[in-house]
Amino acid sequence: MTLLLNNCTILPMTEAADGSRSFTGSVGIAGNRIALVTREGAAAEAFRAAHPGVREIDCTGRVLMPGLINTHCHAAMTLQRSYADDIALMEWLHDYIWPFEAKQTPAEIALGAELGVVEMLLGGTTSFVDMYWSEAAIADPVQRLGIRALLGACYLDTNMETFERDLCDALDKTRGCERVRIAVAPHSGYTCSPENLVYGKELARKYGLHYTTHIAETHDESRIIRERYGRTPVAHLDALGVLDDRTIGAHCVHVSEEDIAVLRDRGVAVAHNPQSNMKISSGVAPVEAMRRAGVCCTIATDGPCSNNDLDMWEEMRSASFLQKSATQNPCAVPAYEILKMATVNAARAIGYGGELGVVREGAIADLILVDMRKPHLCPVHDLVSNLVYCGKASDVETVIVNGEIVVEERRVRGVDTADLMQRIQAAAEAIRSR
């Protein structure tokens, strides 16, 4: 597809020479790449001439910015939205979530993931990192709906054989789809033995995959790992040699200064899930300390059963406010740093550093248009502050992934949303009846 987006307020997420963070201009897309970013009308005219039949969109009143990247979620858990609330994590997992999941079929998991993808796309999330069972089934709606994804085939000690089949099937199914990559996703250091954690990393290295796992999410997790292995969760994983710059650690709530140094030195990206951590009362991750120490910090929603949505705008606002409250420092994690966590940093975390999370010529065209003509976004003294502290998922009007428009006028391409929601309700009731 060839597109020319005119009269945009462009938020490139790259620092200009004059220090400005946004400007008005045009963006041209050819194929799946950004071919033009300009303030000059003459350059836009030249793009038109070079691409006869280009589709043009007038973006007056909209902000054009990189799509948001959700670095940790369980998209298919839409089926369990509000199913088990106000319950401590270990009870939540053992008495509610895992029994529910044991009754799901791969087709139902794919259906739940489809709703999750629709929700994310409508909110301007153009890439997500998943961790779940039956990722080979989840790959079907992901490929069909056009979102970009890193699908983490999850495992516990009790399902290693099923995991290996799922991993191989997911790799086969997504071969040739440039938007979808597969990852190895051990659940955690307390549900996976040291041998299986290492085995998963060996598979990841063999196939050139990312490795993502829950790390230091709760006090209980930290206690269990310390009792078994005499180390913190971070130190335990580090001793096993599984931490590196292709590892995404979800949560990292209960980490020491020494742990933070290890995360930085190994190049681990941290996926911060503020609302889920608050809801389950896991604690407050020391994001400001990690960020200042040089750890690559990103933002994520976690699953729609522990959150209970997949809204990255709420997550950005919560992440900043929570750090300001926890540190008693109103300057902690300012708005622009939050936006970087959800774009630039997240792109680096998923292996697209410099190619995603920015609006620049040559980058992959994963972009969103945000309608600023809303009462809650007026007036604009600081564009970035308005987006991070006032923006809502419903402000996203158009979503472009890999150069293709997948959401236009708040409609997801190829999806009958009302029908999808009816099928989700029926599936959720069927699973509970079992």
User: Which structural class matches the secondary elements?
Assistant: alpha/beta
Major sheet details: 9 strands, mixed
CATH fold assignment of the largest domain: TIM Barrel
Mean pLDDT: 97
Q: Radius of gyration over alpha carbons?
A: 21 Å
Can you count the helices?
A: 16
Helix content: 40-55%
Strand content: 15-25%
Distance between the termini: 46 Å
CATH class of the largest domain: Alpha Beta
Regions with pLDDT < 50 over 5+ consecutive residues?
A: none
Name the CATH homologous superfamily of the largest domain.
Metal-dependent hydrolases
> What is the CATH architecture term of the largest domain?
Alpha-Beta Barrel
- Work out the count of structural domains: 2
Shape: globular
Number of strands: 17
Q: Which features does this protein show?
A:
434 residues; alpha/beta; Urease, subunit C, domain 1; TIM Barrel; 2 domains; nine-stranded mixed sheet; eight-stranded parallel sheet; 16 helices; 17 strands; 41% helix; 23% strand
Commentary on this structure:
The chain is of the alpha/beta class. It has 2 domains: 2-66 and 355-412, Urease, subunit C, domain 1 (Roll), CATH 2.30.40; 68-349, Metal-dependent hydrolases (TIM Barrel), CATH 3.20.20.140. The chain is built from 16 helices and 17 strands. The strands form 2 sheets. Strands 1, 2, 3, 4, 5, 14, 15, 16 and 17 form a 9-stranded mixed sheet that branches. A hairpin with a 2-residue loop joins strand 15 and strand 16 (404-408). It is globular. The model has no long low-confidence stretch (mean pLDDT 97).
